[in-house]
Amino acid sequence: MSAATARLSLYEPDFAQDPHSAYQRMREQYGPLVPVDLAPGVPATLVIGYEAARRILGDPQRFPADPRRWQVTVPDTCPIRPMMEYRPNALRSAGAEHARFRAANTAALEAVDQHALRDHVEKVAAQTITAFQADGKADLLTQYAWPLAFHTLSYLLGCPDEVGQRIADGMSKIFDGVNASIGNQILTQAVTDLVDLRRAHPGDDVTSRLIVHVARLNENELGQQLITLYGAGIEPLTNLITNTLLEMLTNPDFCGDLHAGDASVREALDTVLYRDPPLANFSMSYPPRPADIGGYLLPADEPVVISYAACNNDPALGTRLPLGNRAHLAWGAGPHGCPASSHAYLIAEAAILHILDALPEIDLTTRREELTWRPGPFNRSLVTLPVTFPTH
């Protein structure tokens, strides 16, 4: 069998509907490192072994996140190129450049008032629920999780709704790999407008703090940090909220008592981050020369993608990564681990607690197996999460 025909496709709808069965087949056929296609004609190695993933994530010298040598081999029309291409930000850089961007992002995020953030999430949650509460039904993805993530991120970044809508539209196109180049253009212009606005009218927000940080980010660098923050904020946060609500509505460990309080929601969040993280496959790196991992030679200048979902559920771990243990890889690891995980956790937990309190008799309108998942190699995202509830 040729290398081309042996590769497994991560972009097909069948993979999106049942990725864990696909990971099991991969493990049986290939072991911890799997030859895949991220898009037609775009080869990569998918890491589905936990120990191999930890080694790669902790070795930025051999596995840098800078994709520039790779992307010259990929046409501009490739649907996933905007998601993976080089940007002067902390996610797509290495070495001193990465350290500079990372320091600016971390400082801007650490200054966020967590109490004010929780208050804002609860306010947005109440307003969002009011808009559909009298209907007796809702799509909790499009009518609750997405607008909540959108408005909360706009609040954190000091972004007006009109600019934020354009950013979200561009980011969605990039994540889906449909009209991704158009999405990239929309996104770039919108974040430029946000930087211009906050430079003229600074506030107590992440964008304003990035502008004045000692890293002295230029205009393009500022815009690219914001793209990273929006990319990490809207889509994955929406998915984390909806996937956790789905877990609480269908998993017997949680659906028997949806109102057990904070502990139950935290357990459900950890279950999702462990089993079905909102970014299922991510943390791309690009070895500049062939790299040996456990006797498997990874080719130079070809993407290495970490499957958080598969690695967390690696049978080789036995009981070393028990359910609820936050040693999962859902936030990444190593120098490129997510710097905003505590913020995302707070937002998702507050959002879920609020809707379960506001709608105590909520039910899924279809069987879990009948729900549709959006195709794509990176995200674990439902198309809809339809529910019903009494209006009394």
Task: Give the tags.
single chain, alpha+beta, 17 helices
Strand content: 5-15%
N-to-C terminal Cα separation, in Å?
Answer: 62 Å
Coarse shape: globular
Uncertain runs with pLDDT below 50, 5 residues or more? 1-5
What structural category characterises the helix and strand content?
alpha+beta
Please provide the ordered H/E string of secondary-structure elements.
Answer: HEHHEEHHHHHEHHHHHHHEEEEHHEE
Report the C-alpha radius of gyration, rounded.
Answer: 20 Å
Count of domains: 1
| Full CATH superfamily name | Cytochrome P450
Q: How much helicity do the residues have?
A: 40-55%
- Sheet bearing the most strands, described? 5 strands, mixed
Name the CATH class: Mainly Alpha
> Overall mean pLDDT score?
90
Number of helices: 17
CATH topology: Cytochrome p450
Tell me which CATH architecture applies here: Orthogonal Bundle
- The number of distinct β-strands equals 10
Order the strands across the largest sheet as they lie in space. 1-2-3-8-5
